[in-house]
Specification:
16% of the residues are buried. With 149 residues, the chain is of the alpha+beta class. The protein has two domains: 106 residues, Alpha-Beta Plaits, CATH 3.30.70.60; 29 residues, no CATH class. A hairpin with a 2-residue loop joins β2 and β3. The protein is built from five helices and six strands. A four-stranded antiparallel beta sheet has the order 2-3-1-4, with helices on both faces. Strands 5-6 form a two-stranded antiparallel ribbon. Helices cover 38% and strands 36% of the residues.
Length: 149
């Protein structure tokens, strides 16, 4: 079965996280790997006040994990997350294949350059045309059309 790339957002108890940040991050990574996944990015996102209390907690630490795992192993991972005491809530979503690289680069803090059609024009032969050649091309097409009529 093919592995897909997933994003898991976790809300952790801020008090537990403050006591042992490295231990919690290692345990979260272990949960994913024990379920058969491969962690690509594992990082703290932010800490903030929750919109509503969760188990009498007013504040939460948000954690992001990007990982590859087979879809059949997701319930095993979800169950392990549910049993992990410092975890208040979690959500796992599948990423579209075309968005994986930009999202991972952003999560790693790398800059992503997205090419746009205005960056360069391409001729039919696959070579990049200069501005002068691009400007001459319509005139050349018009002259060949006039010659053929």
């Amino acid at each position: 079965m093919a592995k897909n790339t997933y994003e898991t957002l976790l809300i952790l108890d801020s008090n537990h996280y403050a006591r042992d940040p490295s231990g919690i991050s290692k345990r979260l990574e272990e949960i994913v790997t024990e379920a058969g996944g491969t962690v690509m990015v594992n990082r703290l996102w932010m800490e903030q006040k929750l919109a509503y209390p969760i188990d009498k907690h007013q504040k939460g630490t948000y954690w992001l994990i990007y990982h590859e795992i087979e879809g059949v192993n997701i319930p095993t991972m979800d169950r392990a997350f549910q049993l992990y005491e410092p975890l208040l809530r979690h959500m796992t979503v599948k990423l579209e294949a075309r968005l994986v690289e930009p999202i991972l680069a952003n999560a790693r803090g790398e800059s992503v350059k997205v090419s746009t059609p205005t960056d360069s024009s391409t001729t039919e032969e696959g070579e990049t045309a200069t501005d002068e050649a691009a400007a001459d091309k319509p005139a050349a097409d018009a002259s060949t059309e006039a010659a053929s009529t």
